[in-house]
Design brief:
about 400 residues; mainly alpha; Rhopdopsin 7-helix transmembrane proteins; about 0% strand; disordered C terminus; binds zinc ion
């Protein structure tokens, strides 16, 4: 019985895997029309072998050098490994499994998304996000720490479908980063604020000002893309300012708390050491974003591995990890004191603030995207070709 089951299972498996199966004794093949049966089985076998061969013949997208792609796609000191500037969505997805100058950028934010999602799921199982309003700032922060690397990964994946799509992809990337800065402000406002600033004017208006910062950040960073070709330095400076301003605003209470601690007004905690590591990585992230090192020293040598944007992604994610640990540690260890002396987080000040900011930021992205979508609708659709005879744009 068990043997029959075993044979049945193996034959079923073999059929589903399209491997030829002899349904009769092998010696019968050699007599009574056996040759015809043998030929039939061989045909079936060939069919089974052809399937993976067809899969293997699926061509990966062709790559190009810097002078073969339009200016808008070029990256400073990256010479090779560019994808076709009018790739299809499928080509973009396939290209994430092929070594090109964006592959590591895609994966260095895609994999951390799953790490942060896992941390979020663990917190969901230990904290009561539904009814305990004290946890809502952390809920908002955790949602945004998952969203920003995922959006960035998608932006890097689909940024070579057209010049217009490239801009729109990065508008969403900047929008997600801008909202992440709001998540930081909400969690810092409720958990990280130094004791002497709790209930101060700044504390009360911390979240509304942070919402204003997201408007400033998204607008300025999206606008900076329009200057990229004509004024690359000005564009880079504006984009850096767009992200540095909300970061400084969010971090001022933390830096003040660290300074107080250094002055001996508090005892160093595990949360503060995490916050310090976060600040170190935040400065490193900013440096990598602006310096374009190491590829600037040796153009073409870091096209695939080790260029500044990849390091920038890794540094940002490591910084976010330490920040998350610091926020969680503060939330847990300061709970009793904050609930006694501070404000109870409200729905409007946390989830409501995120919803308002999300709508405003999507509106800003819509305003910047509309002329590009209009332009791409009016321009004739260029066919996707295997050779890239691209003119400069
Ligand atoms: Zn990026």
């Amino acid at each position: 019985m068990s043997q029959d089951n075993g044979i049945g299972w193996s034959q079923g498996w073999a059929r589903s895997a399209r491997i030829p199966v002899f349904d009769y004794p092998v010696w019968l093949v050699l007599c009574r029309g056996g040759r015809a049966r043998l030929r039939e089985v061989c045909q079936r076998g060939r069919g089974a072998i052809r399937l993976p061969a067809e899969m293997l013949s699926l061509k990966l997208p062709q790559l190009f050098d810097i002078h073969q792609v339009p200016k808008v796609f070029r990256e400073d000191s990256i010479i090779s490994g560019y994808r076709h500037p009018r790739s299809s969505a499928l080509d973009c997805i396939l290209s994430s499994f092929q070594m090109n100058n964006e592959t590591i950028n895609i994966w260095t934010h895609f994999l951390p998304t799953w790490y942060f999602l896992w941390r979020f799921c663990v917190l969901c199982s230990t904290l009561n996000f539904l009814t305990d309003s004290y946890t809502w700032p952390l809920l908002v922060y955790m949602m945004l720490i998952c969203v920003y690397p995922f959006t960035s990964s998608c932006a890097h994946t689909f940024s070579t479908m057209s010049a217009e799509s490239r801009h729109i992809c990065y508008f969403f990337d900047y929008g997600a980063l801008s909202l992440y800065s709001l998540g930081c402000a909400i969690s810092y406002g409720y958990y990280v604020m130094p004791e002497c600033w709790v209930n101060s004017w700044l504390h009360q208006y911390f979240v509304p000002i942070a919402i204003g910062n997201t408007v400033f950040c998204t607008s300025l960073s999206c606008y900076s893309r329009f200057l990229e070709l004509q004024f690359p330095k000005r564009s880079k400076a504006l984009r850096t300012i767009a992200f540095v301003v909300p970061f400084i605003f969010d971090t001022v209470p933390l830096i003040y708390r660290i300074l107080l601690c250094c002055g001996g007004s508090c005892s160093p905690t595990g949360a503060l050491s995490n916050h310090c590591y976060h600040l170190l990585f935040a400065f490193l992230t900013c440096f990598l974003f602006t310096a374009h090192l190491p590829e600037r020293l040796a153009p073409g040598c870091f096209d695939y591995f080790g260029h500044s944007h990849q390091l920038f992604h890794v540094s940002a994610v490591v910084g976010s990890h330490f920040q998350m640990e610091g926020v969680i540690a503060d939330m847990t260890s300061r709970r009793t004191w904050l609930l006694k002396h501070g404000m109870m987080p409200s729905f409007l000040g946390t989830i409501g603030a995120l919803a308002i900011s999300l709508v405003i930021n999507l509106g800003i992205i819509g305003i910047f995207s509309a002329p590009l979508l209009w332009k791409s609708c009016r321009s004739p659709n260029q066919p996707h070709s295997s050779t890239c005879g691209c003119k400069e744009q």
